[in-house]
C-alpha cells in the first residue's frame, strides 16, 4: 500500500502526522494483506479499508467517531475496527458508510445535520445499521458536505441530512420510516448510479443519460446534451467537491465543473463542457478527490496518473504546484486499487 498527500491526522497510516507527503510512500506494518482488500474509502482526513475476511480497519481523523472505533481520538496507524463484512466502504468529510453483501447499510461519524441519523446525537462513534423504507437494500452510499445519499437496489435515491441545495423544480417526497425522514428523489427513470459533491448529485438513469441536481455555481450540475455524449456507455460516475466525471466503457474519462486548480486535467481553461482527459492509453479506473484526481490506465505496470490541486503534495509529484494536466507517477507498478480523499491518495499494489 502506498499513500501520499495530507497527513495532518495520520490518515496515511505511517504512524505520525505531517502537513504533506510529497511523493508516494509505502505503508509499513499493515494489519491486513493488500491482496485481500475489497474496498478503500478516503474522507476529509480519515481512511477506511475492508477486506475479504470481513474486517474493517481505519486510521486518521476521528473527531466525530468517523473511524467507528467507539471513541473520538485520532489514530495514526491502521487499527482494527471490527468485523462487518462490508463489500463497499465510502467516506465523507467526517462521516462514513459501509454496505454488506446482503445490502445492509451502516453509517457512523458526524450527525450534526442528521446525516447518519441517530436522534439528537451529534456523532455516532460505531458503525450503526440503518433500516431503509419498504425493506430496501442499499447498492451505494455517498456523502456531501451535509447530506447522505443512498442508492437502493430497486433504483431509487434516498437522502438524509440537509437538502436545501436541491432545486425547487426537483420532485422530492418525504418518506417516514422508523422515526426517520428520508427524502425520496422522484425521477422519470430508474437510477443505476449516483455520485455526490459538496452540494450536488450526478445521477445516471437506466436509459443511459446523465442528470445533475443541485448547486451549479461552477457548472458542476450543468445539464443538457453535452453531458450525454457517451449515452449507454458509462460504467462509473464520481464527483469531487465541485467537479464531476464519468468513465466510459471504451476507457475514456470526461470531467466538468470547477477548474481553478486544474481539477479537470485540461489546463486552466474554464470547464463549461465535459473535457476529455488526455491520456496515453485507455483508463481502467478513476477516482476524484476533493479537488484532484487519479486515473489508472490499461498499461497497469506504470500507468498511474494524477492531476489537480496539490497544496499538500496530493498529486505525488514531489512538489506543491498544482498539476494542470495528467502526470504519470513513476515508480509505482502493479496497481490494483486507487482512492482519493480531501488532499491525499492511497493505492494498493500487487506483490512482485
Automatic annotation (TrEMBL):
Transferase listed as a keyword: no
Q: SUPFAM superfamilies of this UniProt entry?
A: RCC1/BLIP-II (SSF50985)
Span of domain RCC1-like: 1-346
Placement of RCC repeats on the sequence:
1-53, 103-154, 251-299, 302-351
Q: Which InterPro entries match?
A: Ran_GTPase-activating, RCC1-like_dom, RCC1/BLIP-II, Reg_chr_condens
* GO CC terms of this entry: cytoplasm
GO molecular-function terms, A-Z = guanyl-nucleotide exchange factor activity
**Keyword Repeat belongs to the record:** yes
Sorted keywords for this record are: Guanine-nucleotide releasing factor, Repeat
Q: List, alphabetically, the Pfam families matched.
A: WD40_RLD
* Protein name in UniProt: Secretion-regulating guanine nucleotide exchange factor
- Protein's organism: Culex quinquefasciatus (Southern house mosquito)
Question: Encoded by which gene?
Answer: 6044256
Amino acid at each position: 500500500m502506498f499513500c501520499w498527500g495530507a497527513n495532518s491526522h495520520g490518515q496515511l497510516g505511517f504512524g505520525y502526522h505531517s502537513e504533506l507527503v510529497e511523493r508516494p510512500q509505502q505503508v509499513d506494518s499493515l494489519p491486513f494483506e493488500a491482496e485481500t482488500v475489497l474496498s478503500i474509502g478516503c474522507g476529509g482526513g480519515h481512511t477506511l479499508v475492508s477486506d475479504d475476511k470481513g474486517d474493517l480497519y481505519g486510521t486518521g481523523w476521528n473527531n466525530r467517531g468517523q473511524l467507528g472505533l467507539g471513541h473520538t481520538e485520532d489514530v495514526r496507524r491502521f487499527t482494527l475496527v471490527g468485523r462487518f463484512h462490508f463489500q463497499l466502504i465510502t467516506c465523507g468529510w467526517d462521516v462514513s458508510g459501509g454496505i454488506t453483501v446482503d445490502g445492509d447499510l451502516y453509517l457512523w461519524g458526524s450527525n450534526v445535520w442528521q446525516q447518519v441519523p441517530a436522534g439528537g446525537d451529534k456523532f455516532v462513534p460505531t458503525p450503526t445499521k440503518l433500516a431503509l423504507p419498504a425493506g430496501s437494500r442499499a447498492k451505494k452510499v455517498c456523502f456531501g458536505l451535509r447530506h447522505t445519499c443512498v442508492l437502493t437496489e430497486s433504483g431509487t435515491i434516498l437522502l438524509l441530512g440537509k437538502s436545501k441545495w436541491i432545486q425547487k423544480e426537483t420532485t422530492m417526497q418525504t418518506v417516514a420510516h422508523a422515526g426517520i425522514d428520508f427524502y425520496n428523489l422522484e425521477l422519470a427513470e430508474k437510477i443505476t448510479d449516483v455520485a455526490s459533491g459538496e452540494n450536488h448529485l450526478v445521477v445516471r438513469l437506466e436509459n443511459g443519460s446523465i442528470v445533475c441536481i443541485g448547486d451549479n455555481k461552477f457548472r458542476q450540475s450543468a445539464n443538457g446534451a453535452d453531458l450525454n455524449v457517451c449515452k449507454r456507455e458509462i460504467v462509473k460516475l464520481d464527483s469531487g467537491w465541485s467537479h464531476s466525471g464519468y468513465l466510459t466503457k471504451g476507457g475514456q474519462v470526461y470531467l466538468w465543473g470547477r477548474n481553478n486548480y486544474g481539477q479537470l486535467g485540461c489546463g486552466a481553461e474554464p470547464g463549461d463542457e465535459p473535457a476529455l482527459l488526455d491520456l496515453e492509453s485507455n483508463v481502467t479506473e478513476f477516482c476524484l478527490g476533493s479537488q484532484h484526481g487519479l486515473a489508472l490506465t490499461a498499461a497497469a505496470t506504470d500507468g498511474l496518473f494524477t492531476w489537480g490541486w496539490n497544496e499538500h503534495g496530493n498529486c505525488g509529484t514531489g512538489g506543491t504546484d498544482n498539476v494542470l494536466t495528467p502526470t504519470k507517477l513513476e515508480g509505482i507498478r502493479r496497481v490494483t486499487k486507487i482512492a482519493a480523499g480531501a488532499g491525499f491518495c492511497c493505492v494498493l499494489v500487487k506483490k512482485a
